[in-house]
């Protein structure tokens, strides 16, 4: 399907080429070159989001493009000025993408994700947090309603690519990749293999992804955790001013600290209470809890815990 630029009329075979082309006819969305007022940046986003609200789901492509452009323009004008655009529209754009995905399925969202592929220029586009948020919602919803096999491989690959490409300082976009853990056990995408490959370089993302994985499939998740802690242990230590350095393998055990409660749900994707919307319940299987306890003992960390320790004592 050809994609036409609204400004210059040029057509492109892929959304990626459309997004990256240099359009000589495009006028800046800014009201003036030195303006830093958010209103001058966001009128076009509002127009496209209004069209989505009115049922024109194709406008979601333009809403994301306008969001990306406004963020880019804001950065050019004032270092940090993009915050005035990002925070008021982050949730709205993610909601629009999610609503469109409800109606159109993965195809529409997959096209958007492909158009803002972080591997194209080895850089995460500015609109990525909203896109990754919608992709994360789709992954979780699909897993809960239709099973792991129904999750599009492209959705998991996208979240993995964002996680790998994002800089350590890009906290918001990195948080939106946590839902990757819901792909554990997928027959065509080896989530645990990818977590193992990335753990030594990015332990702070692997931990919450494993936490999500327990809610997706606690039996597959404890298999994965045992592999990372014992079978093919991840090397490395953390120093948090808590005394001795903390081994990565000990930090990974932190991912289970909330499983024995009903008030410690993962809070990503942001602005979406997935367990409420999906009427999701979770009960830790006794056999899985015993495997966690045995894992703690086998890894040599039990002596650091109280005699009557609970899973919450594994939190760091």
Can you walk through the features of this model?
By secondary structure, the chain is mainly alpha-helical. It is built from 14 helices and four strands. The chain has helices at 15-20, 39-53, 59-77, 83-104, 106-115, 128-146, 153-165, 171-175, 191-199, 203-216, 218-231, 248-253, 274-277, 286-298, and strands at 3-4, 11-12, 237-238, 246-247. The protein has a two-stranded antiparallel sheet with strand order 1-2. Strands 3-4 form a two-stranded antiparallel sheet. The protein is elongated, with a radius of gyration of 21 Å. This is C2H2-type domain-containing protein.
The SSE string, one letter per element, is EEHHHHHHHHHHHEEHHH
User: What is the percent of helical residues?
Assistant: 40-55%
Number of beta-strand segments: 4
Using the CA coordinates, give the radius of gyration.
21 Å
Q: Order of strands side by side in the largest beta sheet? A: 1-2
Q: How many distinct helices?
A: 14
Query: Structural class, from secondary structure content?
Result: mainly alpha
How would you sum up the major sheet?
Answer: 2 strands, antiparallel
Strand proportion = under 5%
Gap between N and C termini:
50 Å
Tell me the overall shape.
elongated
The pLDDT mean sits at 88
Low-pLDDT ranges: 13-22, 24-36
Quick overview:
With 316 residues, the chain is mainly alpha-helical. The protein has 14 helices and 4 strands. It is elongated and about 65 Å long.
């Amino acid at each position: 399907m050809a994609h036409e630029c609204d400004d210059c009329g040029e057509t492109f075979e892929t959304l990626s080429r459309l997004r990256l082309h240099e359009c000589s006819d495009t006028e800046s969305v800014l009201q003036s070159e030195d303006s830093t007022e958010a209103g001058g940046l966001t009128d076009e986003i509002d127009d496209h989001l209004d069209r989505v609200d009115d049922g024109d789901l194709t406008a979601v492509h333009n809403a994301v493009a306008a969001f990306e452009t406004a963020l880019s323009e804001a950065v050019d004008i004032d270092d940090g000025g993009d915050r005035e655009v990002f925070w008021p529209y982050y949730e709205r754009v993610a909601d629009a993408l999610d609503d469109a995905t409800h109606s159109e399925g993965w195809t529409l969202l997959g096209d958007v994700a492909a158009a803002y592929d972080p591997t194209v220029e080895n850089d995460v586009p500015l609109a990525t947090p909203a896109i990754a948020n919608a992709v994360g919602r789709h992954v979780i919803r699909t897993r809960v309603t239709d099973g792991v096999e129904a999750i599009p491989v492209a959705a998991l690959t996208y979240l993995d690519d964002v996680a790998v490409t994002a800089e350590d300082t890009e906290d918001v976009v990195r948080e939106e990749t946590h839902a990757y853990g819901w792909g554990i056990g997928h027959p065509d995408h080896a989530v645990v293999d990818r977590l193992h490959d990335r753990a030594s370089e990015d332990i702070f993302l692997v931990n919450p992804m494993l936490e999500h994985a327990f809610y997706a499939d606690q039996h597959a998740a404890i298999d994965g955790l045992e592999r990372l802690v014992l079978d093919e242990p991840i090397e490395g230590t953390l120093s948090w001013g808590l005394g001795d350095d903390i081994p990565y393998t000990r930090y990974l055990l932190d991912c289970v600290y909330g499983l024995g409660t009903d008030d410690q749900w993962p809070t990503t994707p942001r602005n979406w209470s997935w367990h409420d919307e999906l009427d999701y319940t979770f009960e830790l299987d006794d056999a899985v809890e015993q495997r966690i306890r045995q894992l703690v003992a086998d890894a040599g960390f039990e002596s650091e815990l109280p005699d009557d320790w609970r899973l919450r004592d594994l939190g760091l």
